[in-house]
Amino acid sequence: MTKKELMTIGAIIAAEHKHFTFTTNGKANEKFYLWYEALKNYPAQQVQEAAIYALKTSHFEPKVADIITAIDLLDPDNITTEKAWQITTDLVRRFGSYQKSAALLAAPHLIREAIETIGYKNLCTSNNLVATRAHFFQCYNSIKLRDRAKYIVHQNKNLLERAKQKTLPDKS
C-alpha cells in the first residue's frame, strides 16, 4: 500500500469521525506514520475493506488493531469453522432476534451466507444448540469450499487469458 492510498483510507474514516485526521498543518502527522508502518505490507483494497467493516461495526474511531482484526476477519482463509460459529453466536448475543439486518451487515460474507442459509431467526430461537451448531458447521464448510473453488476457477481463467494473449500473433 502506498502513502497516497492510506491518505484516501484516512479520508473515508474521517467522513464518519470528524476528529480523525492524518494531517496537521497540511503535513502528515505521527498517526499517519504509525498507521503506515503497521499497515504498509497489506494491500490497499484489503485495508479499505477492513476500515469500512470497522466503521460499520463500531461507534468508535478505529485504531490500527481494529483494522488488522478486521482484515483477519474478512479473509475467509483465516476463519476456522469454530471461529465462524463463535462470531455468529457473538452476533446473535449482540444484536438479538430483532436486528437481523444489522447482524448480517456486521458478519463477514461467508458467515453471512451460512446464517442466511440456516435462517437468522432459527439461530436466535433454537432450543437445540448442538444440532444448530452442527448444521452451521456443515453450511459454513460447504460455502467456504464453494467460495474457494470459485476463486481457483477465476484464477485459472485469468492465467488462461494471459497465456492466450502471449501466444497469439499480433495482427497489426
Could you characterize what this model shows?
The protein is mainly alpha-helical and 172 residues long. The chain folds into two domains: 3-74; 76-167, no CATH class. Helix content is 73%, strand content 2%. The chain has nine helices and two strands, in the order H-E-E-H-H-H-H-H-H-H-H. It has helices at 3-16, 30-39, 44-57, 64-74, 81-95, 100-106, 109-118, 120-125, 129-167, and strands at residues 23-24, 27-28. It has a two-stranded antiparallel sheet with strand order 1-2. Helix 1 packs parallel to helix 3 (44-57) and helix 5 packs across helix 9 (129-167). It is flat.
Quick description:
This protein is mainly α and 172 residues long. The chain contains nine helices and two strands, in the order αββαααααααα.
SSE map:
Elements: H1 3-16, E1 23-24, E2 27-28, H2 30-39, H3 44-57, H4 64-74, H5 81-95, H6 100-106, H7 109-118, H8 120-125, H9 129-167
Antiparallel strand pairs: 1-2
Please give the largest β-sheet: 2 strands, antiparallel
Number of domains: 2
If helices are DSSP runs of H or I spanning 4 or more residues, what is the number of helices? 9
Rg over alpha carbons: 20 Å
- The run of helices and strands is HEEHHHHHHHH
**What gross morphology would you assign?**
flat
Question: Separation of termini?
Answer: 37 Å
Task: State the share of residues found in helices, binned by percent.
Answer: over 70%
Proportion of residues in β-strands: under 5%
- Mean pLDDT, rounded to whole units? 87
The assigned structural class equals mainly alpha
Q: In order across it, which strands form the biggest sheet?
A: 1-2
